[in-house]
Amino acid sequence: MMDTTQALIDLGYIAASILFIIGIKMLGKQERARMGNLMSALGMLIAVTAAMFECCLDFTWVITGLVIGSLIGLIAARTVKMTSMPQMVALLNGFGGIASLLVGWENFHSQPDSTLFARVAVLLAVLIGGVAFSGSLVAYGKLAGKISGKPILIKQQALINVLLLVAALICSLFLVFTPGGIIAYVVFLLIVVLSLSLGVFSVTPIGGADMPVVIALLNSYSGLAASAAGFILLNNVLIVAGSLVGASGLILTGIMCKAMNRSLGNVLFSGFTAGPGKAVSTAVQGEPKPISAEDAYYILEAAGSVVIVPGYGMAVAQAQHAVRELGEILENNGAEVRYAIHPVAGRMPGHMNVLLAEANVLYEQLAEMDDVNPIMETVDVCMVVGANDVVNPAAREIESSPIYGMPIIDVDKAKTVLVLKRSMAAGFAGVDNPLFVKENTRMLFGDAKATVQQLVAQFKES
Amino acid sequence: MSFGLLFFVFVLAIFLGVELISKVPSQLHTPLMSGTNAISGITIVGALTAAGSGADLLGSILGTVAVIFATINVVGGYLVTNRMLAMFKRKSGEQK
Q1: Which one of A112, A193, A266, A443 is at 20 to 30 Å from A433 when CA atoms are compared?
Q2: Is residue B93 a part of any domain in this protein?
Q3: Dihedral of alpha carbons A50, A52, A56, A61, sign
Q4: CA angle A356, A360, A366 (to 5 degrees)
Q5: How far apart are CA A295 and CA A298, in angstroms?
Q6: Which residues neighbour A446 within 8 Å (Cβ) at sequence distance 6 or greater?
């Protein structure tokens, strides 16, 4: 009897693992992504059900936790605005991390004299889970505007991080060879504090535009923490699911770093403008050519193909709906309209795509950088809405520029470039942008949303 | 289960993850991230065990708080991902 139950539970875990794998696979294709998400949710349901059969002597605590958690999750997911999605993802990610930390803590608390192997797993779950939690909370604060998005410089930041990490590792080493007891417990709590501090000190100095890298990396951590929890409980489904997430987070991190032409170490350990590369910023020669919305209307009206390049400024101005409306008008006017999106535009991987999709821009119109660049010379008008560094030709042309070598969207190669921009201020990287003074560039100053609405009005009047 | 076997599973799953993710179009990076984020809520299985078998009151509380956080991660993560994916529309199958 017992054997049958255990076999069924194990089967459930295997089914869950398979559903996770298929689910992730399907998330990679737009047509099947929703189904993929459902499959993976079904996997989770099966895993939880199976766990209920073997977990509990007493269900009161378990049910209480499940009900409270479900309610909060449900309400949060229903009410969150699409524009708040980056911070929501950061927050949820942090919750996964703290859950793994607590699983480790409970195990340490309830089984003080566990095996060496279990002890190491507990420490890993606490360390990684703690960093994922506090790091995600700081990222949440930055994304939600509760903490300054600017890179906050802490003196000797790298040194502090190394010291924290070394201290945590020494404490861990001590615990591995010390059985239970009051001293061991104190050291354990110290490790919890150290790991939480490490997360805070690692993420605080990182600026807003580097957030896509950080979020992807923290995502990976929370997966690895779950995996460590799996090693504590000797449970394969945690190990499989956790490491799948860990791997996917690392891949995304790599993609984001590549899109900024920076190494992970560079992102983590140097605030961009604060880095040693800052000194040389060649002054850009020339005058920007500001035009009125009416002039811009005539340019757009005559265009046969338009590529719109959105950046974080579009999200700040909440201009995505206005931009979509303008896009539709241009299409009705006979122009071919596409949206070119840089991989690190915005504050999380794929941020701009989500905003535009919310504004009902069709999936086919969302183009990747590498698809648009080869045909840029044939484009009549390229309209840059609130993007700066990701369209800065200095990355191609000026070797001394801090962003030299970063892949950009080659908007300057289009026949005419319209730049919608609040003012002439430099972008996040603090680098001058030669695009603004190019021969074929016209500047439209003002709030992105208001400007686009003016353009829409111009079209409607005519 | 031996450490060797668990570690074997771990390494294989990492490689599988790399294979699965490496070709996702950048348009879908956000839902991919929040979808995998929901999967990392699998730690809920560990949390359930912790909450249901806590040795004393503190143990049960630690486990229960873990269950709460993990459940928010799971439920919130899947719902948010679903909401985002529902927004991606093509010309043909227009829903909603």
Answers
A1: A266
A2: no
A3: positive
A4: 50
A5: 5
A6: A420, A422
Task: Output the tens digit of pLDDT for each of chain A's 462 residues.
Answer: 468 888 999 999 999 999 999 999 999 888 899 999 999 999 999 999 999 988 777 788 899 999 999 999 999 999 998 888 889 999 999 999 999 999 999 999 988 777 888 899 999 999 999 999 999 999 999 888 888 767 677 677 778 888 999 999 999 988 888 777 888 899 999 999 999 999 998 888 887 778 888 999 999 999 999 999 999 999 999 999 999 999 999 999 998 888 888 888 777 776 544 443 443 445 566 778 888 888 889 998 888 899 999 998 898 888 999 999 999 999 998 889 999 999 888 888 888 998 999 899 998 899 999 889 999 999 999 999 988 888 988 888 888 877 888 899 999 999 999 998 887 766 656 667 888 888 888 888 888 889 999 999 988 887
**Domain count across chain B:** 1
ipTM confidence score: 0.93
State both tokens at A367: 């183009």
SS3 A247: helix
Residue among B20, B59, B68 whose CB faces A106 most closely: B59
Inter-chain contacts counted by CB atoms under 8 A, chains A and B:
392
Q: Return all residues near A425 (Cβ < 8 A) that are at least 6 apart.
A: none
Please identify among residues 57-76 of chain B the ones whose CB lies closer than 8 Å to any CB of chain A.
Answer: 58-60, 62-76
Contact across the interface for A109 and B58, Cβ inside 8 Å: yes
Catalytic choice (A295, A380, A389, A447): A389
Gap between the Cα atoms of A422 and A443, Å rounded: 10
Tokens representing A333? Answer: 């006017």
Residue A294: how many other CB atoms lie within 10 Å:
10
For this structure, is A10 an active site residue? Answer: no
Is B55 domain-assigned?
Answer: yes
C-beta atoms surrounding A6 within 10 Å: 12
Residue A208: what residue type?
G
- Provide the domain limits for residue B34: 27-87
